[in-house]
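[Q] Does anyone have a clean structure-token version of this?
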Amino acid sequence: MYIMKILSNRKIKALFYRILLYIIGFSLLFAVVIQTGLRQGALYIGISVWVMGFLITAACYGYFKEQNEIMENAAEQIREYISGSKDARIECYDEGELYRLFHEVNSLVSILNAHIENEGKEKEFLRNTISDISHQLKTPLAALNIYNGIIQGEAENPPAVREFTELSEQELERIETLVQNMLKISKFDAGTIVMVKSLENISEMMERIKKQFSFRIGQEEKEMILSGDESAELICDRSWLTEALINIVKNALDYTEKGDSILVEWKRTASALQIAVKDSGSGIHPEDLYYVFKRFYRSRYSKDTQGIGLGLPLAKSIIEAHGGNISVDSELGVGTTIYINLYREQT
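[A] Here you go.
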């Protein structure tokens, strides 16, 4: 088996056959000399031995010289890669153990290049994220400075102080929401979230979410309708799934006007629980649909100046952590629908 692995190299096989041919050829010559009893046969045999030795030595020299050139070329390619040339590769178009080694080296280079590329993307993402966070924080912080200045100037005017104190509180809530959502998304990115799942009634969860938004719905004169099987159950992490649904419903409320409605409906299939959150708002522009779940994304068509663009990305991370998927469908002037598929586990 070991000999066969060695002979799988075409050049080693050629060298082996050449030496074998020399030995057989000169052995036949020796036999002829001995059989014919030529004078000075010993001299002829001696000369033949020297010639055979020379030919074998020359063949081995040529082979090892070629192998040395191959190794030098491989070493040069490795040095080029170390110097920064990502395209450096060792030629390995032949068979044999040496070329298997070269192939593995090339594979290692490809893996290292992929890691370097991913690291570059992660650094770029981190830079962009820090830039986005800085941009998102500038607005509420600037507003807080203005409100504090007005409060100081209106110390003798309690109604004005009260008004701008409430505005300051809203901006502080925006900052807190931004920080909390970033922390939650970072935990999902790091894979440190542990889902504590149990069997939950979906209808009950939806009623609690509706109750949480009841005051805002009344204030904005909107309507929230729940529709689905009251006995539908799902194995999930109640806290995290509620967080995702709250962010989706809040997003619907943010982009609807007075008199608009939000319909939350759910149904069971053979393998999944499907949830749809539909609103009758202004809809999403077609060029923005692809970016709906992108962090900090803000459409140039959006009139919203309060959102921070983390609600739907966080919801997406939570749904995917449950092994589900989330998608969006929207039509301008008609409304938007967020679809969620949560695949059912056996109890």
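[Q] Thanks! Anything notable?
[A] The chain has eight helices and seven strands.
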